[in-house]
Design goal:
The structure is a homodimer of 227-residue chains. In chain A, helix 2 (17-25) packs across helix 3 (34-41). Chain A is of the alpha+beta class and 227 residues long. In chain A, strand 4 and strand 5 (116-118) form a beta hairpin. Chain A contains twelve helices and eleven strands. In chain A, the strands form five sheets. Chain A has a three-stranded antiparallel β-sheet with strand order 1-3-2. The first copy, chain A, has a two-stranded antiparallel ribbon with strand order 4-5. Chain A has a two-stranded antiparallel ribbon with strand order 6-7. Chain A folds into two domains: 3-75, Orthogonal Bundle (Arc Repressor Mutant, subunit A), CATH 1.10.10.10; 79-224, no CATH class. The longest helix of chain A is centred in the first third of the chain and has 13 residues, at 3-15. Chain A binds chain B through residues 3-17, 20-21, 24-25, 58-60, 78-79, 81-83, 85-92, 94, 98, 104, 174, 179, and chain B through 1, 3-17, 20-21, 24-25, 58-60, 78-79, 81-83, 85-91, 95, 97, 99. The structure holds a DNA duplex (30 and 30 nucleotides).
DNA sequence: TTCATAGTTCATTGTATAATGAACTAAGTA
DNA sequence: TACTTAGTTCATTATACAATGAACTATGAA
């Protein structure tokens, strides 16, 4: 098979309406049962099963059996990033009509993108990290400066340890609301984890939206001159 | 329309086999005619036209009319980025297969286009002029920066004089081999004349091809960091 | 002029594949 | 044990939309 056909295979797979909705729902990184996903996409369980089988075969999803339930989740962070970046192609006019909706304000301001922080806040923090010379953008990645190693160690994040992990360390992820890059990879995950554990931000229930606590505002301002 | 439906709209658009092949072909950043794209995708011209209209409407492509041809290209770098990132999801990728380019013969490498320089060299020079901030692309034209005025005056080219002429000063011309823009207009003519007069390049007899002299190579490298 | 080529539009046909119903396995429950 | 729920498989149906032919505009060339 030629490369463009392989690309077409992936594109077709993502292109079905029902599958697109399911994948979008899975963007929070959580695992959902087949029945839950069928409700999301508003199709029969049989049909859902068929779609899920295809997504599994393409290694876009992974499945975990637990009793009589099967929990489906995105195979890895890369899948999530591709889906989010595809959303950045939604025509400007349509994006505007979405982000001005009151209920989507929080999701566009700050949300999780699978395992790291996205939205306006995600981009702002990344910008600040670059401005403070903590990280530096190189091609599609970021490198951490000597100063940055120190900065992250204050958050109990050990750069050397993270680099040892198999997964990507610190790469760029395209944000669909901001149309700009933000920090992803194991470093992005570590930062998100720290912020949640230390109550800088809180996840909203049943949503990818997060909100910044007053402590978080203070810390981000002190450490990154963010606000 | 909800966000997941809009995502589905984009995904569906990219998901058609024929469209996927066309988009993949356009990844090189060059512009192609509708007929050429129909050959790439191996479908009829009518069908191609239909697909292109959809991609245009979604602002994934832009079109430029030139005579009876319509040149289609990706709307911006983001589109290319997303397509490439989607290709990264191809399972057990054998993406290492290199995309072969048609080898450039002298007629495609450098040739005159009516009264200015075209071909790969023409495009390269134009790119370098932009990169060095000597000229700046604005819509279908180029403007010359203050730095640029100085740069051209070193070649005895007086920008103010050229602007007084009735004909177009510096517009974009689409190259058929490179499918990318290069400098045309009175400024393009003046530059070509200078290069010939000063033996940077020589016209081949009975041909539009030109060859670059060793002096030309040196000068273009010194002044534009071209090679 | 007239002809050829590039490209589009529109109505019709064709087809790939999604959705569905019925029948099934497998796990949990009363 | 029988019964319910989760999920799948398979054969059939339905449908969205891609492909096509015919007719059209527009540019360029003889």
């Amino acid at each position: 098979m030629e490369i463009e056909n392989k690309f077409g295979y992936i594109a077709t797979l993502l292109g079905d309406k029902a599958r697109a909705i399911m994948l979008w729902s899975l963007l929070d990184g959580k695992a959902y049962t087949a029945t839950e996903l069928s409700i999301c996409a508003n199709i029969s369980r049989q049909s859902t099963s068929n779609h899920l089988a295809k997504l599994l075969e393409a290694q876009l999803l992974i499945v975990e059996k637990q009793g009589r339930h099967r929990y489906y989740r995105l195979a890895n962070a890369r899948v999530a990033q591709v889906i989010e970046s595809m959303a950045s192609l939604i025509p400007d006019a349509q994006i505007k009509s979405i982000i001005t909706k009151p209920k989507s304000q929080s999701i566009t301001y700050a949300r999780t993108c699978y395992d790291h922080l996205a939205g306006e806040l995600g981009v702002k923090i990344t910008d600040a990290l670059v401005k403070q010379k903590i990280i530096e953008p190189i091609y599609n990645k970021y490198i951490v400066s000597a100063l940055g190693v120190k900065w992250f160690s204050n958050l109990d994040i050990n750069i050397d340890e993270l680099k040892l992990k198999k997964r990507s360390f610190a790469h760029k992820c395209l944000d669909w609301t901001e149309r700009r890059h933000h920090l992803a990879g194991s470093l992005g995950t570590a930062l998100l984890e720290y912020m949640i554990c230390n109550d800088w931000i809180r996840k909203k229930k049943n949503s990818r939206a997060v909100l910044v606590t007053s402590l978080g505002t203070k810390e981000l301002n002190d450490r990154l001159k963010l606000f």
